[in-house]
Write a structure and sequence with these properties.
mainly alpha, 255 residues, globular
């Protein structure tokens, strides 16, 4: 982590500004010397905060006696709003590029296009639907809250791992600007994510969640390398979505 309390706050603010749309007030005034590659330790913290928002939305909806499915939709919707649909957009762009491009250059061009095609729209529908279905399948507000916080942290902690083990497919873009994470900061993020997961869901579910997240990293390392020769910011978003989906399904299937 960056040395000193001010450095930690700067890292946290950098992670929040990159991964969420949550206003930070005075904390959002990040020094020009701030290094995004060092802020990766705070990614799971930012993700956990997004999960807390989803958990609070679900709890309020449940208190208002909304049906489980409605409460689940609102919870996932709250998390999407908190991130500005950043990761959903990455998943959609990746699906459009991988599905519609004929070669690496065309795939990367499609991924940079802000318009969403058929593959992208279907990817978003499946992503939201699977997450909502998994949350709605859980009957405990406490477990739902813990699961949303856990997947929020775990999904963001996996992104620096893919950035480390797979080179960027572009010479520019968000992934390049973030830089290759130093192993110390990446490992610190993984430890923080592990602590958050262990405190929010039972040990057996935490182990299954970690296995699912690791499998998602390996899958996207293989697929992205095969499709475009490396990773991009969109691929990182797609990885985060995949981790959320698979971990929530694993939790719903294990209880």
């Amino acid at each position: 982590m960056t040395e000193g309390r001010q450095g930690w706050v700067s890292d946290f603010a950098s992670a929040m500004q990159l991964l969420t749309r949550i206003p930070l007030g005075s904390l959002g005034q990040i020094p020009e010397s701030s290094d995004q590659s060092q802020a990766v330790w705070a990614y799971p913290v930012a993700g956990a905060i997004v999960g807390v928002i989803g958990a609070l939305v679900y709890a309020v909806a449940d208190w208002a006696e909304a049906p489980n499915l409605v409460s689940a939709f609102l919870a996932i919707g709250g998390m999407v709003l908190a991130t500005g649909a950043l990761h959903e957009d990455g998943l959609a762009d990746t699906a459009d590029g991988f599905g519609g491009g004929q070669n690496i250059e065309s795939k990367l061009t499609i991924m940079r296009d802000s318009r969403i095609g058929t593959y992208g729209m279907l990817a978003i529908i499946f992503s939201v639907g699977l997450r909502v279905g998994a949350v709605a399948a859980l009957d405990s507000v406490a477990l739902i809250a813990g699961a949303l916080i856990a997947v929020g942290a775990l999904s963001r902690a996996t992104m620096p791992v893919l950035m480390t083990i797979l080179d960027s497919a572009r010479a520019d873009g968000m992934s390049v600007r973030a830089g290759t994470p130093d192993a110390r900061f990446m490992n610190a993020g993984l430890i923080i994510a592990a602590v958050i997961v262990l405190f929010t869901i039972p040990l057996g579910l935490a182990i299954n969640a970690a296995i699912a997240a690791f499998a998602a990293i390996l899958f996207w390392r293989w697929l992205a390398k095969k499709q475009i020769g490396g990773q991009t910011g969109d691929v990182l978003g797609a990885l985060g979505q995949t981790v959320e989906i698979t971990v929530l399904i694993v939790i719903a299937s294990s209880v």
